[in-house]
Amino acid sequence: MGKIYAVGVGPGSPKYVTGVVKEIIQNCDIVIGYKYTLKTIEDLIVDKEIHEITMNNQEESYQKIHSVLGNRSLVIPFTGDVNFSESEVVDRLIEIFGDVEIIPGISSIQVAASKAKVPLDKSKVITMHVTTSIEEKKLELQKALIDGYNVVLVPRPWPKQPDKHFMPSEIAKYLKNNGFDTENMKVHVFEALTTENETSFVGTVKDLEGKEFSDLSVMVFNQVVLDSYMNYKWQWKN
Questions:
Q1: What pLDDT is stored for residue 80 in this prediction?
Q2: Residues 150-163: what's their mean pLDDT?
Q3: Is the CB of residue 40 less than 8 Å from the CB of residue 9?
Q4: Are the CB atoms for 145 and 181 separated by under 8 Å?
Q5: What is the CA radius of gyration of the chain?
Q6: CA distances from 161 to 35, 57, 98, 213 (A)
């Protein structure tokens, strides 16, 4: 079988596609992915065999390509970074194709943290964007906030099942119901990062109640306290 790559193509702007990923895409034979993701790399795939998939037909499409791939190379692009919020799909690709080479990309969580001026090494990164239960992740969110960490969070859009829908408004109500002073908690919400449709919200968690955001949203709870090297002058002493 030919080479199979799962690659991250960044949050949405072609400018955020890394050089190594561009090279892999340009040298491949087949590309299969979601419409939004393919749009990000459209200039790189003009001469490729392209398969656009949806959540409903992805299994059928992967199986069909597996049966006819032969020695050709295949690229499966993912929005953002392959290693974040995509494990369920990647695991299935490994089950189907066997050896899949994973190439990381720039994630929206990195861009969101940078825009909010929040260091990731002092943050907890949490994704609710999974199919399985998020009850433990909700508790993880509570603990991180209580412990004083910044939190970079990917919410879960599930409008067809309101009990599973956990977007900024639901998150704000959840935190309030669990005793958090949401009127004094600073939060950013970014949508469609790096694209021409990018928007940003800055306010308190309380302000999020009743507000609607797209499924391309990232939240940043900012509890950062500046801690520069000037607080550690002892390290300069002999």
A1: 94
A2: 92
A3: yes
A4: no
A5: 20
A6: 23, 20, 33, 16
Residues in the chain, overall count: 238
Residue 169 pLDDT exceeds 90: yes
User: Beta strand pairing status for 4-8 and 74-78?
Assistant: parallel
SS (H, E, C) the chain: CCCEEEEECECCCHHHCCHHHHHHHHCCCEEEEEHHHHHHCHHHCCCCEEEEECCCCHHHHHHHHHHHCCCCCEEEEECECCCCCCHHHHHHHHHHHCCCEEECCCCHHHHHHHHCCCCHHHEEEEECCCCCCCHHHHHHHHHHHHCCCEEEEECECCCCCCCCCECHHHHHHHHHHCCCCHHHCEEEEEECCCCCCCEEEEEECHHHCCCCCCCCEEEEECCCCCCCHHHHHHHHCC
Token couple for 142: 């509570």
Residue type, 166: F
Kindly state the percentage of the chain with pLDDT values over 90: 85
Lookup result for tokens 């392959």: 82
Taking the C-alpha atoms of residue 96 and residue 91, their distance in angstroms, rounded to an integer, is 9
Task: Name the residue type at position 179.
Answer: G
Mean pLDDT across the chain, nearest whole number? 94
